[in-house]
Amino acid sequence: MKILITAQGDFVAQRFDLTAEVVITTVENDISVGKPRTIIMDRPSPEDLCNMIMEENIALVICGGIEDRHYQFLAWKKIRVIDFVIGDYDSVLGKAISGDLKPGEIVHLTRRDLSL
Fold first, then answer.
1. Is the pTM of this model over 0.85?
2. What share of the chain has pLDDT > 70, as a percent?
């Protein structure tokens, strides 16, 4: 399964339609396989982002706020969306892999971030 997280720096981007950076991770048997890929788009475009999601065969999208039309399009394409998530993408990814991430969740920082 591939997971895409909209990103802004080390955190989940606040809005799907304004993000120009994504992190894509492949997960097999509840373990992240390989190093996550970061893709920086030319410009924020929710339509281009939806196309990328389709082309990359993404199964799960994790994002902040998302317009209903984009949410409905992804749902129609059988792509699961967990929206209104706040947190750093490492912690968010960990919760998603374990199956504990829910829409609207505020994810606290990982131990790595607490040492800063």
1. yes
2. 94
